[in-house]
């Protein structure tokens, strides 16, 4: 799809906080504290102030998340992974793009949105995600909401793999080599405690 240059007013930010937290002993990761602040607050810090809107994709503790902004829940309550949260969020916004970020990477660079937007514009793409030089960081992404019907069909077929859906479309990577530690996600209390 051809498109014009992306602007922040065309974007809704989506914080993915809807997982079961199985490796966090069932704790809701977005509400777990690190340095006296819940992880959800670090995700909010990474969103530019002029982004049009922010949604928090969560499936429990909804009243606690509402303190931070508008929430959205998966259509299915079976914790079907990040794509389910992305799809639910797409159905709740009229923005042409969504800026996706996880709730469990408190060291994410403050300029990650701009890096994604620049790469997406340069590549005239529909999806852009971070490559930190060692691995793809699929949950730091900009995605065109015109792909909503494609994502719905993908989920209805029982598919859940983020990278496989991305790679069906016109995608580019934002090269953030050398920042691997900034994208470290914390799946356990131990991993969180190891962050400096």
Describe the model.
With 196 residues, the chain is of the alpha/beta class. It has 7 helices and 9 strands. The chain has helices at residues 39-45, 62-66, 82-90, 112-123, 148-156, 162-166, 189-194; strands spanning 11-16, 33-34, 37-38, 53-57, 70-72, 97-102, 127-131, 136-144, 171-175. The chain has a 7-stranded mixed beta sheet, sandwiched between helices. It has a two-stranded antiparallel ribbon with strand order 2-3. Helix 3 (82-90) crosses helix 5 (148-156).
Give the uncertain stretches in residue-range form.
none
What gross morphology would you assign?
globular
Main sheet strand line-up = 5-4-1-6-8-7-9
The biggest sheet, with number of strands, parallel, antiparallel or mixed sense and barrel status, is: 7 strands, mixed
Work out the number of β strands: 9
Rg over CA atoms: 16 Å
Number of helices: 7
The run of helices and strands is EEEHEHEHEHEEHHEH
Q: Give the end-to-end Cα distance, rounded to a whole number of Å.
A: 42 Å
Strand content: 15-25%
Give the % helix. Answer: 25-40%
Q: Could you say which structural class the secondary elements and strand pairing correspond to?
A: alpha/beta
What is the average per-residue confidence, as pLDDT, rounded to a whole number? 90
Task: Give the topology.
Elements: E1 11-16, E2 33-34, E3 37-38, H1 39-45, E4 53-57, H2 62-66, E5 70-72, H3 82-90, E6 97-102, H4 112-123, E7 127-131, E8 136-144, H5 148-156, H6 162-166, E9 171-175, H7 189-194
Parallel strand pairs: 1-4, 1-6, 4-5, 7-9
Antiparallel strand pairs: 2-3, 6-8, 7-8
């Amino acid at each position: 799809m051809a498109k014009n240059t992306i602007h922040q007013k065309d974007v809704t930010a989506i914080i993915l906080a809807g997982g079961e937290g199985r490796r966090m002993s069932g704790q809701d990761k977005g509400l777990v504290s690190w340095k006296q602040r819940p992880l959800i607050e670090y995700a909010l810090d990474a969103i530019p102030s002029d982004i049009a809107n922010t949604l928090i994709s969560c499936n429990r503790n909804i009243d606690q998340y509402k303190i931070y902004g508008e929430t959205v829940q998966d259509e299915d309550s079976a914790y079907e992974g990040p794509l389910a949260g992305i799809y639910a969020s797409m159905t709740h916004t009229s923005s042409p793009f969504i800026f996706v970020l996880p709730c469990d990477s408190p060291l994410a660079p403050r300029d990650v949105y701009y890096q994604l937007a620049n790469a997406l514009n340069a590549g005239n793409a529909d999806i852009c995600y971070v490559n930190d030089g060692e691995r793809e960081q699929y949950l730091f992404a900009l995605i065109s909401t015109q792909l909503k019907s494609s994502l719905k069909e993908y989920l209805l077929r029982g598919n859940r793999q983020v990278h496989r859906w991305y790679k069906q479309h016109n995608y580019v990577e934002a090269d953030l080599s050398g920042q691997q530690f900034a994208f470290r996600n914390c799946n356990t209390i131990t991993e969180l405690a190891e962050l400096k």
